[in-house]
Amino acid sequence: MTKFNLGQAVAWTSQSAGYVKEKSGVIEQVVPAGSKPDQVRFPSLYKGAGVGAARDHESYVVRVKGKGVYWPRVNQLKAV
After folding, report:
1. Which of 12, 56, 58, 70 could disulfide-link to 76, CB 3.0 to 4.6 Å?
2. Which range marks the domain in which residue 45 is found?
């Protein structure tokens, strides 16, 4: 699995309601395996259904300019 660093630019594709969107942003937090994103720094991730379960691998919170923060699946991320 590819590792990324704080401040690194990344992109990924997401799907919702039949639409596919390319998103890109910058790594804001490296989340250790077994942990969840920082709830104080990223409260928007915890609204609604929340972030779900902790992941069993290192993961990343990504800030997309003008859109907020996301916690995408690592296998979807690519360096840009």
Report:
1. 12
2. 9-79
